[in-house]
Amino acid sequence: MSLSEQVRDGIAREMAKYPKKRGALLPALHLAQAELGHISVETAKELAEVFEIRPIDVMEVVSFYNMFYDRPQGRHHVYVCTNLPCSLRGARTLMRGIEARLGIEAGETTADGRITLGHEECLGACAYAPMLRVGGTYHEDLDLEKAMQILDGLE
Amino acid sequence: MPNVSIDGVEYEVAEGRTILQAIDDLGLLMNGVDIPHYCWHPKLSIDGSCRLCQVEVEGFPKLQIACNTPVKDGMVVRTQTESVQRAREGVMELLLVNHPLDCPICDQAGECKLQDYAFEYGLSHARTEEPRRALKKRYDIGPTILLDQERCILCRRCVRFCREVPETSELAVFARGDRSTIDVHPGVELDNDYSMNVADICPVGALTTKDFRFKVRVWFLDDVPGVCTGCSNGCNIHLGVASNKVYRYVPRRNDEVNETWICDEGRLSYKAIGAPDRLDASELRHADGRVETVRRDQAITLAAAKLRSLIATQGAGALAGIASAHATNEDLFTFRRLLDALGIESRACPVPTGRSDALLIKAEKAANAAGARALGFGDPAPVLDRLRGGGLEGAIVLGHDLLGPLGPDVSRLGSLDTVILIDTHHSELERVADVVFPARHAAEKLGTLTNHAGRVQRVQPALEPPFEAYAEGEILTRLGEALALPGFEADWDPRAVSKRMAQEVRAFAGCDVDSVGDSGKPMPGGSA
Ligand code: SF4
Ligand code: SF4
Ligand code: FES
Ligand code: FES
Fold first, then answer.
1. So what's the ipTM on this one?
2. Ligand 4 atom closest to residue B37's alpha carbon, by position in its atom list
């Protein structure tokens, strides 16, 4: 899959806003990911050509931000907060339980492409710890059973 | 220029430098003023990421990083206070939280800044019990280097090096925070002409060269200052020597020549010293082609007799002197005196050539081409023409670099009446020579080499060859003696020869082996 004309035009428009081309790398990554779902090594190569940098410079940024993905993602993103307050309330046990039930580890996607599981830093819901988010929706005051009910309901 | 007080001593420093740079400029860094540092490197951009270099600066409420705090007139810096020590301890503790502590099986041990600083500034025990990060070890990232991600302290020197020096950018930091790792891009290897420098600048055992790994513990090595002979740049190096064997070359800082770098090819050129094809004895070739190994003095007598009779019958004009750009100035000065004394006018120095770049690598693939030219050994074309076209009956040849330009015509040499060869390695040339003498490598003798820019630099014996081998100058001196030439009676003393050369040859005035010191000196007239 390569970048569409639309995405390329979008990137050109973003670039015009910055004194240095490279400033537009983040918006460009958002545009590319919105279209392709993730930033593959091939996409990084294309973007690098557009920005006149090296593919490794693109992947460095992709790997830095956890809203960018370097591999295909599941239909739902499930992020369990494992920051300190949540961890004090059992978030790590929760995470391990979810991993065991889904048969994957954090960072991986279920074989049916349904769920990608991940860690998250504090989401500002510590008072209702432990918690997870599915996309933009928060689920709070969890235990493993409650969490699994939510996950089982995902298409 | 700003005046700065460092630990109570006033110094005048250059404008626009940071505290650490200013201390390095003064030659005091870790040499009077101890500021431990990981990420800062004198020849790379400033990163300010390791936080180990913190110092007290009067007027600032908190400690400042010395590597990125500009000096100001009247600044008062303290590098050894209680709060500085505590900060160092804290930084070291954090750096060690995830360190695997596998020093016993780590090849960096003994020259590891993590060991050194932990010993100097660290705590003696760990306060964490959590498992340490498990990452890739013995990770093959290219033809020359292995990466151990667990040992990495993320100083990013290697990343900046690849970006800024060879400008190849093979390495980067992936992910962030406590998940950061150094890695290459999928499918792209760390592979450039200078790749092995990353192992030198990596302060820990995260990047090691495949070549040197586990060959010898570094505390057994003596570092002998010398010069790389791979090309005419003459990069300054330390030869790592143990038990009379060279195990590696590492760069030695010389801001006039190679900053703190050497190329990979030059680095690996140490292998030529202990190579199995070294010439290790004097040889005579009989008329029937049989080669006999003889004592040096017997070979000298025979070579002298051959030269004498050839000159008597054909005249000195029938001979040529072919120098080697691998020999020292002292060897070549002696050669010049011998040729002068014999009346041999025809002189040349073939210089092998190859690839060059804008950084260090020069096209002339020998260390002393400029020195040879300064001593009158120039373009080999006229001599080669005579060799091909006739009119030459004998030659004294140093080295085998003649083989390149001569190509298939090397057999022509075989039909000469007399060929005397002094060389370090076996070659095809040996088969056409009447007398062969084994020569010393630049790592095995005292002398000077002149680099492409006319800088005269010293080499000194880092080891004794485990067989009979002599400096070219020594063989030539003995030959002169055997020919009863005046001024060739004394024992070979490269230091005395060097002094004499500096007196007699204007290009070398003031540039004898002692005067040039460890970092070399430009020839008064510039490069030849
Ligand atoms: S591999 Fe070495 S040089 Fe590179 S960041 Fe890690 S510690 Fe620093
Ligand atoms: S650039 Fe030339 S002198 Fe320097 S290390 Fe390489 S081969 Fe040796
Ligand atoms: S720590 Fe989990 S929401 Fe704040
Ligand atoms: S040396 Fe100053 S922060 Fe690393």
1. 0.85
2. 1
The residue of chain B with its CA nearest to that of A44 is: B185
B203-242 pLDDT, tens digit each: 999 999 999 999 999 999 999 999 999 999 999 999 999 9
**Full-model pTM:** 0.93
Question: Which CATH number characterizes residue B255's domain?
Answer: 3.30.70.20
Looking at chain A, which residues constitute the CATH 3.40.30.10 domain(s)?
A: 76-152
| Residues B245-289 pLDDT 10s | 999 999 999 999 999 999 999 999 999 999 999 999 999 999 888
* Least Cα separation, residue B128 to chain A (angstroms): 16
Residue of B193, B259, B263 with the most ligand 2 atoms within 8 Å of its CB, for mutation: B263
Pick from B272, B301, B322: which residue ends a domain?
A: B272
Residue B59 lies in a domain: yes
The residue type of B14 is: A
* CATH code matching the domain that covers A5-64, chosen among 3.40.50.2300, 2.30.30.230, 1.10.10.1590, 1.20.120.1730: 1.10.10.1590
Helical ranges in B128-255 per DSSP H:
157-164, 197-201
Q: Which residue type occupies B408? A: P
Residue B390 has pLDDT above 90, yes or no: no
Q: Residue B399 in 3-state DSSP? A: coil
B121 found inside a domain? no
User: Quick one: pLDDT at residue B478?
Assistant: 98
Is the distance from CB of B401 to CB of B421 less than 8 angstroms? no
Q: Which residues of B touch A59 (CB under 8 A)?
A: 172, 174, 185
For A94, what's the count of Cα atoms within 13 Å in the CB-facing half-sphere?
Answer: 30
CB contact at 8 A, B480 and B338: yes
CA–CA separation, B206 and B146 (whole Å): 8
Q: Kindly give the number of the ligand 2 atom that is closest to the alpha carbon of B234.
A: 3
- Taking phi over 0 as left and psi of -120 to 50 as alpha, with beta for the rest, A49 belongs to alpha
Specify the ligand 2 atom closest to the Cα of B249: 5
Q: Using most ligand atoms within 8 A of CB, pick from B49, B79, B92 the residue to mutate for ligand 4.
A: B49
Domain A76-152 -> CATH class: alpha beta
Q: Report the separation in Å between the CA atom of B523 and the middle of ligand 2, taken as the mean of its atom positions.
A: 20
Q: Residue A29 C-alpha to ligand 1 middle, in angstroms?
A: 28
Chain segment B92-118, per-residue pLDDT in tens: 999 999 999 899 999 999 999 999 999
Show the domain range for B310. 282-522
Q: Give the model's pLDDT for residue B180.
A: 96
